Amino acid sequence: MGRRGIDPDAFAAARARRAALEASGGSWRRFLEDPIEVESAEAPVTDLALETLVHRIALPSRTFLRDRLRIRLPQEEDVVDELDPFTLDGRDRWGLGSAMLQAMEEGATPEEALARLAASASTPRGVPGLATLRNIQNDVLEIARIAAVRRRSGALPDHTGTVELALASGATVRLTGRLDRLTPDARILARFTRLGGRGELEEWIRHLFLCACVETGAVLAPHTVLVGRPQDSKKHPEPVVEFQPVRDARRELARLAEWALEAGDGPLPFFPDTSRVYAAGAGDDPDKARRAANLHFYGSGSSAFGPAPEAQRELEMLRLWEGRSPLSEAIPGVEDVDFEGLARAIYQPLFDARKEHAS
């Protein structure tokens, strides 16, 4: 088959036969005036939802198990430990704070939101429960206050957009998503979450999409402001993180999309907290950063106090990586990426665009 979709020898023979028929006074049948142009083989176009991209990057182990292997393991939130709890763990506290903040953003007064949560099965009863809720409410009120000041310029309608990403493989991804909480100055989000965690990474990916929409003509401010609980009361006491405009955001999104699509062949060796620990220190001292990452992921084994190692926080993470060393070995299906390279590639652009503010 030739470039134009025909066999050149067969075409030459047909032309010779036609010439012979014309010379002898015969007639010939014309089926087509000209050869058919065959469309060039184009790289495939893949449709990808923004939230799918967010989940595959921020929760690669969970999405690989659920989407690729069709395995769902029980989660802590699926079961209430006690019918009448006396204390709250971090997950329960986050859940109550998020529900209170959402209720207030939907129009409830602080006392109405407090009353709703007081009836929750996960709220401690009596005086201890009320004291816990008041403590959570103080954090929520501060987050809501800062967000309200930041939103003084008014609200804009949600924006739904599509951007095309050219991947290094030659394929094209059509990324579609919706952006909420828009104002003339920035996309401003209030979250009852600690800054510097997985929630910040998720908003970073949405920020890249915002900047990519602006690159393709959307009239939006290419800034994202995230108001939450301080990452660290001593080292990082600021409750506000701002992401600055990103030059060539589509290129950054294309890299993420490439990895997200690869995650269907094998789990990405990317762990939001551990990868961030490594990326934050790798520029100054790679060996020290490597030790810190291993400690954060595996733990020291010498103390039962403090947060659990990241490898043990979710049953899906524990089972998927059991018996493997994802921080140092190649992972079948995704051999072209490794933990250290992936951590730097995903987090360094975030660090470059990130600024902390006191309010």
Please state the structural category: alpha/beta
Task: Tell me the number of helical segments per DSSP (H or I, 4 or more residues long).
Answer: 12
**Oligomeric state of the chains present here:** single chain
Trace the largest sheet across and list its strands: 4-5-6-7
Largest sheet: 4 strands, mixed
Characterization of the model:
- By secondary structure, the protein is α/β, with parallel strands linked by helices.
- It has three domains: 1-41, no CATH class; 45-73 and 153-357, no CATH class; 81-150, Arc Repressor Mutant, subunit A, CATH 1.10.10.
- The protein is built from twelve helices and seven strands.
- The chain has helices spanning 8-23, 50-58, 60-68, 90-105, 110-118, 126-150, 198-215, 249-262, 272-282, 286-298, 315-320, 339-353, and strands at residues 45-49, 159-166, 172-179, 187-194, 224-229, 240-243, 354-357.
- The strands form two sheets. Strands 4-5-6-7 form a four-stranded mixed sheet, with helices on both faces. A three-stranded mixed sheet has the order 1-3-2.
- The longest helix is centred in the middle third of the chain and has 25 residues, at 126-150.
- The radius of gyration is 28 Å and the shape is globular.
- 33% of the residues are buried.
